[in-house]
Amino acid sequence: MKKIHALLLAVIVVTSFGCTPSFTLTEKNFQEYKFQVATADKGYSLEMPEVYDDLYRSNLLNLGGVLDTTLVRNYIDSLVFDSLIGFEADEINLSEYYYQYRLYKLRYYDLLLRQFLKKMVYDKAESDSLEIVDYYYANEKLFAIDEQINLYHILLTKNSLLNGPDSLKFRELNEEDLENAVVSLVDSVKSLITSPDKFPEIASQFSEDVGAKKGRGYVGWTKRGKYPDPFDSVAFTLRNGDIGGPYQDDNGWHIIMADEYYPAGLQPINNNLYIAAKNSLQTVKTNKIGNHLIDSLLADYDVVVNKDIADKNVYIVDGQTWGAIINGIDTIDCNEARSLEQSYREKFNVLNTTPEMKAKLFRQLGE
Prior knowledge:
Layout: E1 3-6, E2 23-26, E3 36-40, E4 44-47, H1 48-57, H2 69-90, H3 98-120, H4 129-138, H5 140-143, E5 148-156, H6 159-162, H7 167-171, H8 175-192, H9 199-206, H10 210-214, E6 218-223, H11 231-235, E7 243-249, E8 252-262, H12 271-299, E9 303-305, E10 322-326, E11 330-333, H13 334-348, H14 355-366
Antiparallel strand pairs: 1-2, 3-4, 5-6, 5-8, 7-8, 9-10, 10-11
C-alpha cells in the first residue's frame, strides 16, 4: 500500500500551514487532503495530492515505508524550485539562440524519433516463443554451425624433467632412458586426471603449453582442420568429458580433453540459440515494417529549396539562412547544408554546387 507519513510544520515558499496537525497519507485517503501546499506567481499552486503522486513516482518509496517530515519538506521545496526555474526558463525565447536551439531540436527530434520507431516499428515486431522456435528450425542455413569441439590440452616434453626439481638426475641419463622417463611422467600425469573436473588443475601444474597453462589448459572452441594431425584426428574422436591420448608428435606428448562437442548442422535449440533466433526474427520484422514505413513517408515527400541561395556558396551565406523546407514543416538551414557541401563538390568536381546539385543535397538531408 502507498503510505507517506507527512508532518508539514513549516512555511513552504509563500504558503504557511500554521499549526497543521500531523496526519498520515495513504493510497485510500490522499485525495481528501486537497489543500494548497505552495503557491507562486504565474498562477502556480501545488496541492497535497500532487505531492503524494510525485513522491510515489519517485525513488524514495521503492520499498514502501514511511517518510519523515524533513524529507517530505525538502522534496516539496525541490518541486517548487523546479517549477519556478521552469517559469524563468519559459521567459527565454530559445529560438533566438541559434546553436543552443539547434542542439535542443536535435535532442528533441532524436527522442521523438525513438518513441515513434518504438510505436510504429519495434512494438509491432514482437514475436511469441512458438514463432521464434519455428523460425529457428525453418532457417537451418542461418543457424547451422560447423563441427566444433571445446578443448583442453596438456603438453609434456623432456624439458619437464630437465628443468624440474630432479634435473641433475635426469641430465645424467642417455637419450633412450630420458625418453622412457618422459613416458613414465606422461602416464603418471594422466593417472592424476581422475575426472574431467580435475583436468584444468593438472594442466596448470604440469603442462608446458604456456598459453594453455595460464588458462588452466583451456584451448577453446576448435573447428575440424584448425590443427594438424594427429592432434586434430584425436580431438575429433572425443565427446563431452572424454580424454584422449597420450600421443606423441614433433612437439612432445599431448593429453586432450573434450569439454563439449557440436556436430555440424542445426543444433537443438537452447537459451542462447533462442535469444539469437529472437533477435534475428525481430531484425527481419523491423526491417520489413521499417522499409514499408519509409516508403510510405517518401511517397508524399516534398522539398522546397530557397531559390535565393540556390546558386550561392553555402559557406559564405549566413549559416542560419533557410535552405529548404520539408513537407511545408521542417526547415533545413545552410549550416546543415555545409555537412554535405564538400562531399558534393568532390563528387562532381566543382568549386560550388549548382542549383540542381543543391536540390539533390537538400533532398538527401531531408530524407
